[in-house]
Design goal:
Layout (H helix, E strand, L loop, with lengths): L4 H4 L33 E5 L8 H14 L4 E6 L4 H5 L10 H6 L10 E2 L5 E4 L8 H5 L8 H7 L7 E6 L5 H9 L2 E7 L2 H5 L1 H14 L5 E8 L6 H14 L13 H8 L3 H4 L4 H16 L4
Parallel strand pairs: 1-5, 1-6, 2-4, 2-5, 6-7
Antiparallel strand pairs: 3-4
Helix pairs in contact: 2-13, 6-7
């Protein structure tokens, strides 16, 4: 019998002489080779019920980084705030959105897909209409699997589908987890962000037990890290101590370049390609490919 995620997480002691920010030996993950063919996509939810931890920033920049390595990527804006769509510079009004696809099972998802300024990175947008979806889905049969049925129609066209979840554990997030092969948890290096991870792991376990036996924890990505503060260092140490090698080696630092890139409507890999943050997301992409979370 397969053990739950929460039972499979290792709990090693934190390295007293860390080499990298996470206390493990740093690796330079090699640049991945181009794929000879594309699809079907591996679907990954970027999930954390706490807001402001870097889910949207990670979805945008990880998607762009994977696209730069020749992967075909579809980003799904699954948050009524529509921040992912805005951050990629795509319109969200008077267009077909993910909300329309959820409510109309006969709609073609390809009608909602929009190209971004990044070659190989497409997006299904969202807007405030999505906030009404939970009400409409309450009486639907198999309501937790509606997003899965939508994405199944376009999965063959992409190598990876990234779902930017809203900061809650409601029906929409459960839909995303049910549709996903893996979960990537962006975690701000701040105490209150750390407190909610155990609850999120429990939710993933419940989805795994009842709806999606194949779902895996692809990793925990430490974000908004500031090595100058004792608090950031202590939180990162506690995360590694609790979740071991589930924590990615790559750590995303704080920088004003992220909001600047969002205003420009482009990923940081295009806005400031030589910046350390851009290089960090390229490293995240290489690490996930190295781990087998992405082809």
């Amino acid at each position: 019998m397969t053990r739950k995620l929460s039972e499979r997480i290792s709990l090693p002691g934190f390295d007293e002489t860390p080499v990298g920010p996470t206390g493990r030996e740093k690796h330079e993950f090699t640049e991945p080779v181009p794929l000879k063919s594309h699809g079907p996509a591996r679907i990954i939810s970027l999930c954390n019920q706490k807001g402001g931890v870097g889910k949207t920033t990670t979805t945008i920049n990880l998607g762009a980084a994977l696209a730069s390595y020749g992967r075909r990527v579809l980003a799904v804006d699954f948050d009524p705030q529509g921040a992912l769509s805005a951050g990629l510079g795509v319109p969200t009004h008077d267009v077909t959105t993910i909300y329309d696809l959820l409510l109309n099972g006969k709609a073609d998802p390809k009608d909602a897909i929009q190209q971004t300024s990044v070659e190989g990175l497409d997006v299904i947008p969202a807007n405030i209409d999505l906030s009404a979806a939970e009400v409409h889905l309450v009486n639907e049969v198999a309501r937790e699997q509606i997003l899965s049925r939508v994405l199944r129609k376009v999965s063959g066209d992409y190598d990876v589908i990234l779902i930017d979840c809203q900061p809650s554990l409601g029906i929409l997030t459960v839909n995303a987890l049910t549709a996903s092969h893996g979960v990537l948890i962006p975690l701000e290096c701040e105490f209150f962000a750390l407190r909610g991870v155990a609850l999120l792991i429990e939710t993933i376990d419940k989805v795994r037990d009842r709806l999606n036996p194949a779902i895996e924890l692809d990793g925990i990505l430490a974000t908004m890290y500031d090595s100058r503060t004792l608090h950031s260092r202590e939180v990162l140490e506690r995360v590694v101590d609790a979740f071991g090698h589930s924590v990615l080696e790559t750590v995303i630092g704080r920088t004003v370049k992220f909001p600047d890139a969002s205003v420009a409507g482009v990923p940081i890999t295009d806005f400031a390609p030589e910046h350390a943050a851009a290089k960090a997301y390229l490293q995240v992409a290489r690490e996930l490919i190295h781990r087998g979370a992405v082809a």
